[in-house]
Amino acid sequence: MGSTSDKISGVANQVAGKAKQAAGKATGNDKLQAEGKGQEVKGKVQSATGKAKDAVKGVVDRI
Q1: Following DSSP, what letter does each residue of 26-48 receive, concatenated?
Q2: Which residue ranges have biased composition labelled Low complexity (predicted)?
C-alpha cells in the first residue's frame, strides 16, 4: 500500500472501530466493544505507517 492509502484505511478503521465500540457499549456487548477497540488500534497503526512512509520518502527525495 502507498502512504495515502495507508492513511485513508487507517482513518476508516478508526471510525469503524469507534462505532463498534459505541454499539457494543450501548447494547452491553463486550465482544463487539473489544472488536471495535482492536479495529481502532489497527487504524492508528495504519495511519502511523502512512506517515512514516511519507517521512522516509521525503528523506529519500532529498538525497
Answers
A1: HHT-HHHHHHHHHHHHHHHHHHH
A2: 15-29
Q: Which residue has the cell 532529498?
A: 62
How far apart CA 51 and CA 37 sit, in angstroms, is: 21
- How far is the C-alpha of 37 from the C-alpha of 4, rounded, in Å? 23
**Considering only CA atoms, which of 43, 48, 60 is closest in space to residue 3?**
48
Residues 39-60 pLDDT 10s: 999 999 999 999 999 999 888 8
Residue 31, number of CB atoms within 10 A of its CB: 9
Give the phi and the psi of residue 29 in degrees, each rounded to 5.
Answer: -95, 100
Positive or negative, the CA dihedral 16, 22, 24, 30 is positive
pTM: 0.86
